[in-house]
Amino acid sequence: MRAITIPEPGGPEALVWAEVPDPQPAEGEVLIEVAASAVNRADLLQRQGFYDPPPGASPYPGLECAGRIAAVGPGVHGWAVGDEVCALLSGGGYAEKVAVPAGQVLPLPPGVDLVTAASLPEVACTVWSNVFMIAHLRPGETLLVHGGASGIGTMAIQLAKAVGARVAVTAGGPEKLARCAELGADILIDYREQDFVQEIRKATDGKGADVILDIIGAKYLQRNVKALAVAGRLAIIGLQGGVKAELNLAALISKRAAITGTGLRARPVSEKSAIVAAVREHVWPLIGNGQVRPIVDRTLPMAEAAEAHRVLDASSHFGKVVLTV
Fold it and tell me: Which residue among 60, 99, 275, 294 is least packed, with the fewest CB closer than 10 Å?
């Protein structure tokens, strides 16, 4: 088969579409013939040599895919050759075939085509696990989403609105903010021109955000705590703004607030399978009834993965960038 390989870490040009050995499904796994994958920030880090796959995972980038089951390994029940599916991966989505634990496989959501479905597993699992399973966002609460125009952001806006929460977003520029508003965002903050701490306090009569979903990390840590409401929950899922920061613990304690930091890729199969099952139960029906929809900025051929990475590097997209085989 062919896959996107990384012979040497570097810029987008480091991605090479090459012949590689076919994967084989182990016990408890299915083999998917990939129709499409989608690009995530983690892929950019892996390309640069900063985010190695966990032990035993495919060496190729790609944390999600959609396609058809080509083979079923021993001990797998509920899936058959020919089923159209999408899946959460530990790697290997940028390829013509990938082996994945059966518990990380999902049927296509109602009304979603095979290529578009590739944009869903990573963002749906990330948002549902962090905002709802860990931070327990409730109806009537306020969620602040940093990077509202990203794949994560566009999913978080819609899911939070679907459960009756109020949503604030940060994004760069009026055009992206306007598109966030179309998805249901109530409070629009241009991070280039506005202080999100002041804006969220103003919009909530001084209370702050009950939950913050943060992709920035160190750069925003102190300001995020200031922006939290009493008993607020800060969920850190990205480190675009660095890995080390100082924090005034008195400010955290005075708000009785909680900070969590999670990644999805390196979690055990059992944990990822539980998240996938929760997404199938709670998110897939919302997609089926039209309350939540996948947001795809553009599709590109898999062989043009370098161009897709340039798009994410430039942050010129809204939603997801999908790669087709």
Answer: 99
DSSP string, 150-167: BHHHHHHHHHHHHTT-EE
Residues 6+ apart with CB under 8 A from 183: 154, 157, 158, 161, 295
Tokens 């083979």 map to which residue?
71
Q: Could you tell me which residues come within 8 angstroms of residue 252 by beta carbon, excluding any fewer than 6 positions away?
A: 225, 259
Percent share of the chain, pLDDT over 90: 98
Q: Which residues contact 213 (CB under 8 A, 6 or more apart)?
A: 127, 130, 131, 135, 143, 144, 145, 146, 152, 156, 235, 237
- What residues contact 281, with CB distance under 8 A and at least 6 apart? none
Angle subtended by helix axes 151-162 and 174-182, to nearest 10 = 40
DSSP type of residue 96:
S
- Mean pLDDT value across the chain: 97
Tens of pLDDT, residue by residue over 149-187, are 999 999 999 999 999 999 999 999 999 999 999 999 999
CB atoms within 10 A of CB 88: 28
- In angstroms, the Cα distances linking 122 to 90, 106, 129, 168 are 10, 12, 11, 22
